[in-house]
Amino acid sequence: MGNVFAAAPPQKPSALGLQVIAPPITASPPGSSQLGATQSPTPSTTSTIEDNHPGTYEDLHKKCKDLFPQVFDGAKLVISKGLSNHFQISHTMSLSTFQPAEYRFGATYVGRKQFSPQEAYPVLLGDIDASGNLNAHVIHAWTEKIRSKFVTQIQGGKCQASQFSTDYKGKDFSATIALANPDIVNESGLVVGQYLQRVTSNFDLGAEAFYQYGSQVPGGELSLFSIAARLKGQKWQLSGNISPAAGGLHACYYHKINDQLQVGAELETSLRLQESVGTIGYQLEIPSAAVTFRGKF
């Protein structure tokens, strides 16, 4: 299926890709043109530096995943208004046959601390529904090399999920440490470490270590290790990561056909569950009409 919407920069996935929280942030992500060109917290410095930097492990499959539309059931109306270059509010109304109609109020604030014309901090995003359920993001760069993110989800007056992560950007590598859902009373939580290294101008290599502990985990604790690689050309990119202990494989392929058409394919395989899921997506832009069409199947 596909959807048509006004051309806008693709949204960045939230948090570390841990899927701990997927808050339906309705305001434009930090960096939307509606907020005075304060594009995404992802560092955006000179082209020479960016060409030699692999980005974060979280963004390993970003080029491919950004092609896929955000599919939902029913109808959704989003009204956004920028009150200044630093502050924006939004109203979101959703209708669905599977759940009651919902209204959410959202707000985005982008601070004045700038490292480049398209990068400003701190960034505060949040939305709340009529029942007081809250989703919030806080993103701040302490220096040009160190950036932290905090994500939380509150429902029924209780914190259902939270995650804190810090990224360090070196000259040709990035390192991330994250802590999710820490519970001192019940002695549970999740710790993740990620590293991505630029090996050559076309090849990146990385690794991820995952450790979870708590009474709900079989044996009281669980640890996994994954390795990842990304190979890219002028108009294409192949990325993948594999977790030998879990028997998991995740691969993505991205190709830019021309200035208007981009395609991507994603494959997720679990040897433990003996199943695979494949997705093919595309993005077609019509610059003259300021319209972008995305679809996947």
TrEMBL record:
GO cellular component, one term: mitochondrial outer membrane
Keywords of this entry: Membrane, Mitochondrion, Mitochondrion outer membrane, Protein transport, Transmembrane, Transmembrane beta strand, Transport
This protein's record includes keyword Membrane: yes
Membrane topology category: Multi-pass membrane protein
Composition-biased stretches (Low complexity): 38-48
InterPro entries named in the record: Porin_dom_sf, Porin_Euk/Tom40, Tom40
Gene Ontology terms: biological process: protein import into mitochondrial matrix
Subcellular location field: Mitochondrion outer membrane
Assigned protein family: Belongs to the Tom40 family.
Name of the molecule in the record: Mitochondrial import receptor subunit TOM40
